[in-house]
Amino acid sequence: DTAVSQTPKYLVTQMGNDKSIKCEQNLGHDTMYWYKQDSKKFLKIMFSYNNKELIINETVPNRFSPKSPDKAHLNLHINSLELGDSAVYFCASSRYRVSPLHFGNGTRLTVT
Amino acid sequence: ILNVEQSPQSLHVQEGDSTNFTCSFPSSNFYALHWYRWETAKSPEALFVMTLNGDEKKKGRISATLNTKEGYSYLYIKGSQPEDSATYLCAWGGGGADGLTFGKGTHLIIQP
Description:
The complex is a heterodimer. Chain A is mainly beta. Chain A has strands at residues 4-7, 10-13, 19-25, 31-37, 43-50, 53-56, 64-67, 75-78, 87-94, 102-103, 107-111. In chain A, the strands form 2 sheets. In chain A, strands 2, 4, 5, 6, 9, 10 and 11 form a 7-stranded mixed sheet that branches. In chain A, strands 1-3-8-7 form a 4-stranded antiparallel sheet, with no helix packed on it. The termini of chain A are far apart. Chain B has no helices and 11 strands. Chain B has strands at residues 5-7, 10-14, 19-24, 30-38, 45-50, 56-59, 62-67, 72-77, 86-94, 101-102, 106-111. Chain B starts with a strand and ends with a strand. The mean pLDDT of chain B is 93. Chain A binds chain B through residues 4, 31, 33, 35, 40-45, 47-48, 50, 55, 57, 90, 97-106, and chain B through 31-32, 34, 36, 42-46, 49, 51, 89, 91, 93, 97-102, 104-105.
């Protein structure tokens, strides 16, 4: 049983398109996150979502929006994709603020 | 800017030797320091979460210490084995925001 699963694993799309990445966790965790691994391999927080409270990293463009249909899911929608959006995106979850993160396997997004 | 610095960036160690590396982080508004192990083609896996100054955690041959007053943590690996080869990430929780700030990692290669 995969604890945090995200789909698709690979996503290749053209500039200007709108795409979504799905994330689901079966751990019963209260908080979910989206991280972006940039070209320098840094993992940077994009969003955290806890009990309907969304905290956004102010550096994230508003073309990116998380959607949480329920506690177990946090999907990432990206509008008007740009070349610079190419990266690996990781979903994660944790039970409490000080609990370890459980990561999904990542989605490699390539914008052409 | 909240910087989490890790050193060295990469490290080659002979099998059987012991090694350690450093994570430095802002000492203000601290609530947690995490260590993760990240193998190629996998997702990061949590090793330790430490919250109190002076915390020491151990898991098998790997241990970690925490100094929140001066803002650093050490990760130690005793008797390195080839399976220890991975990137080791530290992540700082603080600054009043949810989500962790990750360092760039120390890439460890164990040479047989």
